[in-house]
């Protein structure tokens, strides 16, 4: 985690240096990390101590979104059980993942974010080939049982993850980075300077 934490802090430092200039740019280039997608191996058991420690450290400085990688290696039942165990592990170890309950402003946001929190960690399947399914070209992975479609919510939760990160919550990710994670970094650095 050290190289990742170092990189995130370097981006905060770069932004801070621009921000404290007497004659600063109107729009400071924002290279800060607004979200970290943390891929959990599909063991089907509990989170490994390494995963817990990694997410604990990262969640203090960046928005962390846990994802089960290669979710097609688990049956639907195994996947549901694994998700539940991960949610329990996160709660037991007080690891705050995005979207954090503490930042839900109004009841509408809370309801939407509660539905998202129920899905965490997102179970995704990666693919880089298109296949013909019912006369349509779909991105997916071919197995001996059929084709796992990346865009099909019945097969994979990638569309939910994409919508969270790019469509519905992009501005919220940026706001939390600026108002919580970066602000915490900024206060710490300015206190060190004094």
List the helices and strands and how they pair.
Elements: H1 2-19, E1 36-40, H2 49-58, E2 64-68, H3 76-92, H4 107-119, E3 122-123, E4 129-133, E5 136-143, E6 146-149, H5 158-168, H6 170-193
Parallel strand pairs: 1-2, 2-3
Antiparallel strand pairs: 4-5, 5-6
Helix pairs in contact: 5-6
InterPro entries: G_SEPTIN_dom, P-loop_NTPase, Septin
GO molecular function, one term: GTP binding
Domain Septin-type G: 1-192
CATH superfamily descriptor of the largest domain: P-loop containing nucleotide triphosphate hydrolases
Number of helices: 6
Known CATH architecture of the largest domain = 3-Layer(aba) Sandwich
Task: State the separation between the terminal residues, measured CA to CA.
Answer: 29 Å
Radius of gyration, in angstroms, nearest whole number: 19 Å
Number of strands: 6
- Percent range for helical residues? 40-55%
Structural class: alpha/beta
Q: Report strand %.
A: 5-15%
The profile of the biggest β sheet is: 3 strands, parallel
Compressed to H and E, one letter per element, the order equals: HEHEHHEEEEHH
Mean pLDDT, all residues: 92
Low-pLDDT windows of residues: none
Q: Which CATH first-tier class of the largest domain would you pick?
A: Alpha Beta
Q: CATH topology of the largest domain, anyone? A: Rossmann fold
Shape, principal axes of CA atoms: globular
Strand order of the largest sheet: 1-2-3
Our count of domains comes out at: 2
Domain Septin-type G: 1-192
GO molecular function: GTP binding
Keywords: GTP-binding, Nucleotide-binding
Protein name: SEP12 protein
